[in-house]
Write a structure and sequence with these properties.
Layout (H helix, E strand, L loop, with lengths): L1 H20 L2 H9 L3 E7 L11 E5 L2 E5 L4 E9 L2 E9 L10 H13 L3 E5 L2 E7 L2 E7 L1
Antiparallel strand pairs: 1-2, 1-8, 2-3, 3-4, 4-5, 6-7, 7-8
Length: 139
């Protein structure tokens, strides 16, 4: 009798803990939307000084600044997987700071190849491959 009571208590506790835990992937998707995320690293290297690439997520749409030009498009989430649709971009050419255009092309290329994302303590990491990441902080 005592073991049955213990088993029932453990079962009820397991159900309660599962219900309270929620869906971590859904929570991360909700955290993604709202803030402006500012790029702090491309493959663990700081962006070129004088540039401030950003990204914002809202209702399946993404927008931001790629270093020189503004961009926008769509994105989709599936758990912690993320993919970006076709992007549009303004067409300015920036000579200053040096390398801004190359950085911009790399940034947009990496977004196009994104596989997954994670958010931890206000840091967004978009993972492209094992050693390829874009790291952002909330603005």
């Amino acid at each position: 009798m005592k073991s049955l009571r213990t088993a029932i208590i453990i079962y009820i506790l397991a159900i309660l803990l599962t219900a309270c835990g929620g869906n971590p992937s859904a929570d991360q998707g909700a955290q993604l939307e709202g803030p402006t995320w500012v790029l702090t690293a491309i493959n663990k290297s700081a962006p070129i000084e004088g540039t401030a690439p950003t990204i914002e997520f809202a209702d399946g749409q993404v927008s931001g600044n790629a270093s020189c030009n503004s961009f926008g498009g769509s994105y989709e989430l599936d758990g912690d997987s993320i993919s970006f649709g076709a992007m549009f971009m303004t067409e300015m050419y920036c000579m200053d700071p040096e390398g801004a255009m190359d950085q911009e092309m790399l940034y947009l290329e990496m977004l196009g190849k994104a596989k997954s994302f994670e958010i931890s303590e206000g840091i967004l990491t978009i993972i492209i491959e094992a050693q390829q990441t874009l790291t952002f902080e909330q603005q």
